[in-house]
Each structure stands twice: as structure tokens, then as C-alpha cells.
Design a protein that fits this description.
The complex is a heterodimer of chains A (about 475) and B (about 100). Chain A has 15 helices and eleven strands. Chain A has about 475 residues and is an alpha/beta fold. Chain B contains three helices and two strands. Classes of the chains: A alpha/beta (about 475), B mainly alpha (about 100). At the A-B interface, α9, α10, α11 and α12 of A face α1 and α2 of B.
Chain lengths: ~475, ~100
Amino acid sequence: MKTIPEYQELFKKGEITPTGLLTNCLKKINPSLNAYITVTEELARKGLKKDSKGKLRGIPIAVKDNINIKGVPTTCASNVLKGFIPPFSATVIERIEKNGGIFIGKTNLDEFGMGSSTERSYYGPTKNPFDETKVPGGSSGGSAAAVSSGSAVISLGSDTGGSVRQPASYCGLVGLKPTYGRVSRYGLVAFGSSLDQIGIIGRNSVDVGIMLEVIAGYDPKDSTSSKKEIDDYSDLNEVSKNIKIGIPEEYFKHIDPGVHSSVMEIKRRIEKEGISFKSVSLPTTGYIIPTYQVISYAEASSNLARYDGVRYGLRKNGESFHDTIRKSRDAGFLPEVKRRILVGTFVLSSEAIAEYYERADLIRRLITQEFNEVFREVDYLLTPATPTPAFPIGERTDDPIRMHVPDRMTAGANLAGLPAVVAPAGMIGNLPIGYQIIGKPFDEKGILSIVRLVEKMAPFEGFLKEVRDE
Amino acid sequence: MKEVDIKHLSKLANIELEREEEKKLQEDLNKIIKHIRQIQEVEVRQTPNTTHLSVEALPFRDDKKEKPLSVKEVLSNTKEQYKNHFTINRMINEDNT
């Protein structure tokens, strides 16, 4: 399992070539996993011809199919975007191109990022590379399955309530959701604009750090992107012994005993390095899911109003203008997206807004304040990434509430805009599970450095190697 | 708790629903709204609104003219166009014009 700097070294020595690496990755695309909606071999080969010297030179990258690459279809796994070819690229894509990265394909997702299993896709479900009867997590399940099965070295996803971190946990990978504002959202198709961040799924913290260094930083095209200087994320070797890590008790309730013991094992290993831990409490944790649902559904109902069949995508002509819009939207969206649009419309309606949306907005502030208070006592938080390992395909598709259960661990960081990373903690049976480190705003370097520390102590290569290595 | 009026919501959301689908979604919506009602339990009288997420003031971009997408690019994703415009159904009844 090589890191990106190791690949660069091998390219320099001439031991492998970028073309050879791309060919290997293409060979590893397993149609049965259904990780890709579009494979962009031609674009990748064209990318190799450019004489680039960047940090990602010759590295095959998979991109979630809700991030625009100019000239390549963006589907968001929805029929409503049928035939849509974006005339512009996302800022992250332009930055990767400048650094020599090549794009191997667009990956599957739950339609518009709305789901936790990558089953709710117009293009069919993606399967977990560790066990094809299980989900890979979602909504960036295709991006996780692609990296986990070795068809891409690293991938981009998007994380609105845990959509990068939860699949990373289910597929034995490192998944980062940066601070809100750290990475430009320009060219990412909007779901919940105050929660969405483009994230990274990689095999290890080093690769994720390098990718972050490439894509992070101010972008005038995203008014919420920060002008704060970016750190040197490719150097993750310093972790001060003086830091304190909090264990929020609420995150350890109602979880699989195997998840509990694996995360405690990570704690013991970090403790051995002389770092201290402290129990802390985040009392509003139990309300994270309903709060997240209200805010994200409300924002989705507004964002998805743009799909009207008039300017792009699917059009079903009706007898009148409104008839055309209504018919196009009915034919274009799958049931989960319709549910969320309808609930979002309800919580914003005049009779319900005070009881639901405005109240959720206050609880969001309360959740943020609780994180802020805890971060006066400790520097980081250690939690499980998910309450259980990957669940069986089909188990939760008809249950709109149960599908949200894994979000309990991850959506808090979205509501409060905090950076969080998930990394492998161990295996339960044949399935990997992860731990999560949440940090203070803009401390991506800190959270990745803790993951690096754990990786150096005991890399989980044994069980991951079989699935991923070339 | 009052049942949600799915007909009204689908009209607001501009989604036409088949009868069977409407029945199923009505059940789902009632379940979801019952679930999200838990947020009523939280004491928020002392809590201020969420006004922003960023820890710093949002930066302004330079007030410079940027190159926009060309008309050709903007129209590139639809066949339903006429002389550099998108075409849609007539909205004003001929009798009323």
C-alpha cells in the first residue's frame, strides 16, 4: 500500500510509470461493485500527456458524481440531470489538474448525496469491496469503494452529514471533512449549503493531507470560503505531548460492543504516546439527527427547486408551464429525494417554520456552543465513526428514519462547521470500522497528525492489503 | 399532531405525484415529522440564532468583472431553445393578451 509521495519517488526512479499505474487502476475497476457512473479513461490518458510537475502528478483520482468536471456528465445519480454536461469545472478540479492529478472516473452516490448507503442511486447500488452483500456507506459510497478496491489512489466526496466519513469507516479508509469554508464548494452541486463541504477519501493520512494542501484555500467563487492561510498538511509528523483529547460519553452509548472496544484500543495506543484523555459531555448529542434532518431537508427543498427541466436535464412536456415543471420533477427524482423536498417544504411553510426550522436553527447554535465549551477543556475529541459496521444491502431502504442512524456520530461536525477525520480502528468479522477525531475550526493538520501517529504505531495493513494492494 | 396536507405540499414543491405514490409518501411524511418533533423538547429560550458558521467575517472578493459563460455554453444543455433563448410553454393565455 503505497503513499502518494512513494509513487512520486517510484516515478522519478523510473520503476513504475504513471501510464502503468493508470492501467493497473483501470484493470481494478470491478463492474460488480458499481463504484463508477462514468469511467473517464480518455480524460485520464489526456491528463498524462500534460507535462506536469505537481504534487499529484500521475495519480489516478476518482470524483464523486456531484462535483463538476468540464465536459464530463454530472448526474448526481439522478434521472433529473439526464444528459447534463457541465460547461465549467469545480475549483477543486482545476486545482488538482494544475497539480498533475488525473481523473479516472465519476463515482456513484445516493441521489444528490441524500442517503447513507449508496443504494438510492438511479444507477443502482454500490457494493462494499469487503463484502458485496453489504453497503459501502454513503452518500460517497462510490468514492470509498473505488479507493478501497484499488481502482483509484484517492478520491473526492462531499460531506453534508457524514457522507465522506461514514463510507470511509465502512470501507477501511481515511475520510476527511474539512472545516466549513476551508475548501471551495464552487462546482459542487448543492444539497445543504450551510453543511456541505468537499471531502477526501484516501488510504492513509499522508495522501489525504497532500490532497487537502492542493484543494484547500480561498476561492473568490465561493463566498463562504475562508482567506485563512492553509497549513503544511503534507507534514503530519509532529503531535505535541501536551494536547488533551476528550471522550464525549454520549457518543459511546447504543453502539456495537466491537466498535466500543476498537475505539478504546485506539485510545490506549494514543495514551501510550504520553497523550492524556478526559471524559467530556455534549448533552444535546441526542438531538443531532432530527436537527440535521430539519436543516438539511429545508436547504435541500430550496436548492433542488432549480431542477425544473427548463435549462438542462430531463424535461417531460406538459400542458402548461407549471405542468411541465411538475411532470419533469416527478419523473426525475427518486422517492427519498421527493420525501426530503416535501418535508423541507413543510418545515419552511408559514404554519410550521417557527416550530421546526427556526427551532432547529437555535438547537444548531446550542450544539455549536457545546462543542466550543468542550474545546476550552480539550483540544480534540475521539469518537466512534459509526455505531456499527456496514449493514446489509436492502436492510434500511424502506425506513427513512433508520437510514439516518449512522449520522448520529458525524452530523454534529457539519452542524458546527468543524473539521473531522475518520480512520480505520479495526475489524468486526470481515468488516472494517473506524474511529473519528473532531478538531477545532481549521485544525485539519492537528486531526490528521493524530491519525498519522496511530498509523505509525500499528498500520492496519494486514487486513486492508488483501483488498486494496496492487 | 395534525396530518400533513401532502396535496398542498406537493403543489408548493412543484412535484406531481401519482395516487399510489402520494399515499406512500403521506405515511412516510407523518413518520418523519413525528420523529423530528423531538426537537420541541430542547430548551432554547436562552439560545441566540445561528447567524453564521465561519469563525471569521466572510471575505469580499475583488469587485472585478469576470468572464461569464458564453450564451452558447449556457444553452448547451437543452434542445428546447429558440434564437438564444430557452423555450417553455406559453404562460399567458392568448385570449387575455
